[in-house]
C-alpha cells in the first residue's frame, strides 16, 4: 500500500471511529452493582439509572453481581469490554478493598476509568432498645466498662457497616467483638431482636428502623447534623466527644480501563446531568444522602479522592488487622 493510500485508510478508520463515538450509546447501558438487590448501593444505582436515561437517550439497566465484599462485581466490570456499555456503581469499598484483600482480582485505580462521584452517605450508630445507655456519653462509659463483651454487628467484610465499625473502634481505642453477617438485613434483624448490641449503618438503611422506634440512636457519623426528620435532633459523634470523627460512605461511577476519551466524556456529561435531576436530588435527600456537585464529579478529582481514601483506610485496616484471602 502506498503512503497516500495508507493516509486515506487512516482517515477512513478515524472517521468510522468518530461516527461510532457520536452514536454512543446506541443500545442499553448496564450498571453493575457488586452487591445483592435491595441494599443501599442497589437503591442508589436504580435511582441513578432512571436519571441517566434522559441524558443518554437509552435504557439503563441494573445488574446485581454480589459476593466477596463487592469484589466479584468490580472484577466483572474490570474485565468487560471498554466500550462504555458496562459500568460499575460502587461504594467506599473501591478504596478499601486493596487493603482488605490480599488477592484482589483487579487493581485500583489502574483497571478503571473514573467517571465521577455520585453521593456521600452518612452512617448512624444505633443500638438495640434494651441497652442501658441512652446517649453517646453513656454508651462510651458502658463500652469502657464492658470492653470486648460489647458486640458490634456488620454486614460482612468490606461492607459500609464493617468499615464504619473499624473507624469507631479506632476512635474509641477499644476492641469490640465484631459479628459479621451475610448482608445488612440479617444483621439489622438481630440488632432489633437484641442478639447483638450495636451497629454502625448507613442512614439509608437505619432511618426506617429509627422511625419505627425499633432501635436507639447514639449519633451520626458525618461532620454535620442531618436535616432528615428522623435524625435532625441526633448529634454528630464529633459533637458527642469523638474529635474530628467523620465517616461518609461515598458512591462512584466507573468504566473499564481503556474506554475511549469521547465515550468517557459522554458518560461524565450524562452523570452531571443526572445529578442535577430534581427527582433524583429529592429521593437521595430523603435518604440522608448528599449528591456530589464539587470537583470530585470530575474524573481527575474522583481519582485523586479515591487515592486519598485508599491511604486513609489502609492505615485503619492495618491497625485492625482484618484481612481476607
UniProtKB/TrEMBL annotation:
Keywords recorded for this protein, A-Z = Signal
Alphabetical list of SUPFAM superfamilies matching this protein: Periplasmic binding protein-like II
Q: Residues of the signal sequence?
A: 1-22
Instruction: List the Pfam families hit by this protein, alphabetically.
Output: TctC
According to its UniProt record, which protein family does this protein belong to?
A: Belongs to the UPF0065 (bug) family.
Specify the protein name: Tripartite tricarboxylate transporter substrate binding protein BugD
**Annotated source species:** Ramlibacter rhizophilus
Q: What is the lineage of its organism?
A: Bacteria, Pseudomonadati, Pseudomonadota, Betaproteobacteria, Burkholderiales
Amino acid at each position: 500500500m502506498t503512503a497516500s493510500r495508507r493516509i486515506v485508510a487512516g482517515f477512513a478508520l478515524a472517521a468510522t471511529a468518530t461516527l461510532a463515538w457520536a452514536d454512543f450509546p446506541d443500545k442499553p447501558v448496564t450498571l453493575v452493582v457488586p452487591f445483592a438487590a435491595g441494599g443501599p448501593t442497589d437503591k442508589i444505582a436504580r435511582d441513578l439509572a432512571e436519571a441517566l436515561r434522559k441524558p443518554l437517550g437509552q435504557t439503563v439497566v441494573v445488574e446485581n453481581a454480589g459476593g466477596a465484599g463487592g469484589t466479584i462485581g468490580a472484577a466483572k466490570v474490570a474485565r468487560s469490554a471498554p466500550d462504555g456499555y458496562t459500568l460499575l456503581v460502587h461504594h467506599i469499598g473501591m478504596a478499601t478493598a486493596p487493603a482488605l484483600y490480599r488477592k484482589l482480582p483487579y487493581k485500583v485505580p489502574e483497571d478503571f476509568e473514573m467517571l465521577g462521584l455520585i453521593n456521600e452517605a452518612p452512617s448512624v450508630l444505633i443500638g438495640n432498645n434494651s441497652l442501658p445507655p441512652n446517649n453517646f456519653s453513656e454508651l462510651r462509659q458502658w463500652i469502657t466498662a464492658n470492653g470486648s463483651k460489647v458486640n458490634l454487628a456488620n454486614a460482612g467484610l468490606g461492607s459500609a457497616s464493617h468499615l464504619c465499625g473499624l473507624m469507631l473502634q479506632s476512635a474509641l481505642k477499644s476492641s469490640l467483638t465484631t459479628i459479621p453477617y451475610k448482608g445488612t438485613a440479617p444483621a439489622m434483624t438481630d440488632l432489633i431482636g437484641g442478639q447483638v448490641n450495636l451497629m454502625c449503618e448507613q442512614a439509608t438503611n437505619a432511618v426506617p428502623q429509627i422511625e419505627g422506634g425499633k432501635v436507639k440512636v447514639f449519633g451520626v457519623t458525618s461532620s454535620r447534623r442531618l436535616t432528615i426528620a428522623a435524625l435532625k435532633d441526633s448529634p454528630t459523634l464529633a459533637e458527642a466527644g469523638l474529635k474530628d470523627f467523620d465517616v461518609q460512605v461515598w458512591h462512584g461511577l466507573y468504566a473499564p480501563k481503556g474506554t475511549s476519551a469521547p465515550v468517557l466524556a459522554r458518560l461524565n456529561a450524562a452523570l452531571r446531568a443526572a445529578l442535577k435531576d430534581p427527582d433524583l436530588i429529592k429521593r437521595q435527600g430523603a435518604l440522608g444522602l448528599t449528591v456530589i456537585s464539587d470537583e470530585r464529579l470530575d474524573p481527575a478529582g474522583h481519582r485523586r479522592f479515591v487515592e486519598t481514601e485508599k491511604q486513609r483506610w489502609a492505615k485503619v485496616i492495618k491497625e485492625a488487622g482484618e484481612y481476607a484471602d
